[in-house]
Amino acid sequence: MTKPPAEFYQWDRDRHPPGYTPNYKTSVARSAQYALISLENTVSEVTGPRFGHGDIDPMDRDLLHNYAADGQSAMGERIILHGRVLDENARPIPNTLVEIWQANAGGRYRHKKDGYLAPIDPNFGGCGRTLTDEDGYYYFRTVKPGAYPWRNRVNDWRPAHIHLSIFGTAFAQRLITQCYFEGDPLIARCPIVQSIPDPDAIDQLTAVLDMNATIPLDTIAYRFDIVLRGRRSTLFENRLEGN
Amino acid sequence: MAQKLNYLKQTPSQTAGPYVHIGLAPGAAGFDIYDTELGQDIAGPNAAGTRIRVEGLVIDGTGSPIKDVMLEVWQANAQGIYAHPENAGTVEDGFRGWGRVITDFDTGEWGFDTVKPGPVPGRGGTLQAPHLSLWIVARGINMGLNTRIYFEDEAEANATDPVLNTIEWERRRATLIATRSERDGLPVYRFDIQLQGQDETVFFDI
Question: Pairing with B168, which of A60, A241, B54, B95 sits 20 to 30 Å away (CA)?
Fold first, then answer.
C-alpha cells in the first residue's frame, strides 16, 4: 500500500478512433480542435471506483429475464455473450464492472427518444451488468439485437451491436465500446465502425460464434474478449491487481 | 526479423451513442429495472468537508448545448484520499468518490452534489491543487474525453498545480477553473465544457 502505484501504458491512439470522423456526422461539431494535453499518471488517474456484489443483483446479467413478466422471456435469437477482461499484459482484470445495453431483436431501443417504427418487446429492457470473476471472466444472456436505421446519411443502418462499458481498476482504463457479430455485412458499411482506422482493430470488436459455449437446444454463444491498458511492472514487485 | 512483442492490443473505443442512458441511467431512458442505479451518491452522508454543487453545460462547436451527454466524476475526499485500495488511508464510510450524471434532455444542464476534495500528491513530491477528474461520453464523441475541474477559490494552490502548469498556453488553463457562486448558502461551481473552437476546454491524454 505504501509503494507508489504503477503507471499505465499510454493509450494506443492509432488503434482508437480519432475525434473527427466526418462520415459519422455528429462527430464534426463534437470533436476537439486542439491536441490533447499529455498527462503523466498521478494518483488521480491510477485509482478509480470499485464495485462489489452489494451493488448489483445476480439477475442483472440475464437480459432474457431481467425485465420480463413472470414466466415470460425476451423475443429473439437467444445468445450468450461471454469473454474475459484482460490487460495488455494478458493478465485478467477481476471484479470489474461490465455494463451493456442494446436494442431488441427488431432493432428498437427502449428509450423515450427512439421513435423507430419497429415495436418494443414488452419483456425486454435492454440493459445488464455484471462483475468479472477472479479470472476476469464475464457472461450475459440476452437476445441478438437487430440492425436499425439512423439519421446520418439517408440510408445508413447500424450493424447488430451491443454497447459495453468497462471500468478496469483505474479511471485511466475507463472504456466504452461496441461489440459486433461475425459475418454481418453491415459492419463494413457503418461509419461508426469505420471511424476506427485499423482493420485489425475492427476485427477485435467483432464477437465470434462460439459453438463450444453454446447450450444445445437452448442458447447460442458468442465470444468477446476485452483488452484494457496494461501497467508497467517494477521488477521484483508483485502486485495482485493490475500490476 | 526480430522477435515479436506479444502484448495484447487495446480494445478500441466506440461512441456511447444517443441511448447511453438505457445501460447506464435507465431511469432517464424511461424505465425502472434496477433496484439501485450506480453513481447517484458520490460522497455519502458521512463525508467530512464542504458540501458543494458543481454544474454546467457541454457545448458543441456550433455553440449549442448538447443534451445526450453522460459525465462521470472521480475525486478524493476532503482529506485528499481516494476510495481505492492502492491509496494509503481510509475514507468515510459510504464515500465512493465516483459519480455519474447525465444532461437534461431539454436544457442540457448537468450537475452533481458532493464535497470539495482536498489536495492530493502529484508526481515527484509535488502537491496537486484540489480537483475533480471528469470523463465525458456522448453521441458523436468517439472516445471518452478526460478533463479536470479546478476551483476558482483555490487560486494559490492552482498557481502551483503541476498539471495546470504543464499547459503551455496559460490562457487555456482558465478553461479548467470552475467559477464560484452561492445558492441557498451553499457554494455552487459552474463548469461549462466547450468541446470545440476558440475557447475549447483542455482535454487530457491520461
Answer: B54
State the CATH architecture for A49-227. Sandwich (2.60)
Distance of CA A51 to the CA centre of its chain: 17
Q: What is the pLDDT along chain A (243 residues), one digit of tens a residue?
A: 445 568 999 999 999 999 999 999 999 999 999 999 999 999 999 999 999 999 999 999 999 999 999 999 999 999 999 999 999 999 999 999 999 999 999 999 999 898 999 999 999 999 999 999 999 999 999 999 999 999 999 999 999 999 999 999 999 999 999 999 999 999 999 999 999 999 999 999 999 999 999 999 999 999 999 999 999 865 444 443 444
Shortest CA distance from B123: residue in chain A: A42
Boundaries of every domain in chain B: 39-194
**CA nearest to A26, candidates B28, B196, B57:** B196
The residue count of chain A comes to 243
Predicted complex: ipTM over 0.85: yes
Of the partner residues B22, B76, B166, the one whose CB lies closest to the CB of residue A126: B22
Handedness of CA A30, B161, B132, B190 (dihedral sign): negative
Residue B150 forms contact with A (CB below 8 Å): no
A161 is catalytic: yes
User: Does the beta carbon of B89 lie under 8 angstroms from any beta carbon of chain A?
Assistant: no
For B142, the closest of A163, A174, A195 (CB atoms) is A195
How many angstroms separate the CA atoms of B10 and A111, rounded?
A: 30
Question: What is the DSSP track for chain B?
Answer: -PPPP-PPPPPPP----TTHHHHH-HHHHT----SS-TTS-SS-TT--S-EEEEEE-EE-TTSPBPSSEEEEEE---TTS--SSTTSSS---TT---EEEEE--TTT--EEEEEEPPPPEE-GGG-EEPSEEEEEEEETT-SSPEEEEEEETT-HHHHHT-TTGGG-S-HHHHGGGEEEEEEETTEEEEE--EE-SSTTPPP-EE-
Which among A65, A110, A163, A189 is annotated as catalytic? A163
Active-site position among A109, A138, A180, A222: A109
Residues of B in contact with A229 (CB under 8 A): 10
Using CB atoms, pick whichever of B13, B97, B123 lies closest to residue A49. Answer: B97
Give strand pairing partners of A130.
A98
Looking at domain B39-194, which CATH architecture does it have?
Answer: Sandwich (2.60)
